[in-house]
Structures are given as structure tokens and as C-alpha cells.
């Protein structure tokens, strides 16, 4: 049973619709006691990382999230919240991963935000990417990226520069792409997470 941590940062309908399609049971976490009802967690998020972090702090759930021992997945801005610092709003994040969220260099022929399908290449063995071939396409929408650090990069992609498409440390995972909008392989990843 997956608990979705709700803190007012973005539309979670596409995520809940995907979980529903896959038959993965889920519920919402609004307060600390709700964590006990679930055996894994998702931190969703779209929009501005600094604003999202402020909203998350306002819930009072930050100490509980940092202390979680069960599988926890950050999606898009939810992944960026797991880093130490974001250039978006010059904001301190949860600091679960000692890496930074940086802004793409817009002074190139590449458009920012990075929007659309891109290939993802796993760099470590992990059940999260089981039955997902290297080079599979996932759907991205973001103007900021997680700096590449081999120690925490579960999968990488390249747009303007190489960056972490997925990160992993202990029970914490993050994906910069939107698995709920990424077709078959996105659904495979969500199903894999439900079994971690």
C-alpha cells in the first residue's frame, strides 16, 4: 500500500490514475499518524522547488520524512526535494542526498524546459528498473536537474549535459521523469516500486 505525501505542490491526478490502472492500492498522507498506514511512500511534486519545500515544511512532516526507513520515491520536484540545495529559489532541500539541483544552461540550441521523451540508462543494478531495457524512453518536463554523482546515480540521461534521471540511497529513490506519463516502462517502474 503506497502513501502519497500531500503538501499542495502539484496535480497528482495522473499519478493516482496510473496507480489505479495498475491495481496498486494507495492513500493520502496528510499528517504524521498517516505514515503508519502504508509500507512505502511517494513524494510527488511539480512547479517551483523552493516553493514546494516551503509548503512541505509548513506541513510539519519534514522530520518524519527524513527519518523514514521504508521505500520512498520522489517524482520530478519530489526528487529534487531529496537533494541538499536547489538553485530554484536558492533553497535548502531535505538533504537526504548530498547533491545539488541546478539550472539548465539556457544559452544553447537546446530549449529549456527539457520537455518530452528522452532515453534513460541504468547505471546500477536495482529492482526499481527490473524489466526496463537500457535506453528506454521516459517523459520529462523540467528546467532544473540533479547534478551527476556516480555514487547516487541509479540511472542517467543527457540533455545539454549528463544528469541523474534517477537516484538511490538506502530506502530513498528519486526519478526526474514522470513514470505515470511514460507509457509501459513508466508503469513497469511504478509496479516495481510497489514490490520493493
Q: Describe it for me?
A:
This protein has helices at about 15-20, 50-60, 60-65, 75-80, 185-195; strands spanning about 1-5, 25-30, 40-45, 70-75, 85, 90, 100-105, 115-120, 135-140, 145, 155-160, 160-170, 170-175. The N and C termini lie close together (about 10 Å). The strands form two sheets. It has a nine-stranded mixed sheet. A four-stranded mixed sheet has the order 6-5-7-10, with helices on one face. The protein is globular, with a radius of gyration of 15 Å. It contains five helices and 13 strands. It is an alpha/beta fold and about 200 residues long.
Run of helices and strands? EHEEHHEHEEEEEEEEEH
Helix/sheet category: alpha/beta
- Major sheet, described briefly? 9 strands, mixed
Strand content: 25-35%
Q: Within the largest sheet, what's the order of strands?
A: 2-1-3-4-13-12-11-8-9
Distance between the termini: 11 Å
Annotation, overall tally of beta strands: 13
Continuous helix count: 5
Specify Rg, calculated over alpha carbons.
15 Å
Instruction: Estimate the helix proportion, in percent.
Output: 10-25%
Q: Give the averaged pLDDT, no decimals.
A: 96
- The low-pLDDT segments are none
Based on CA inertia axes, which overall geometry fits?
globular
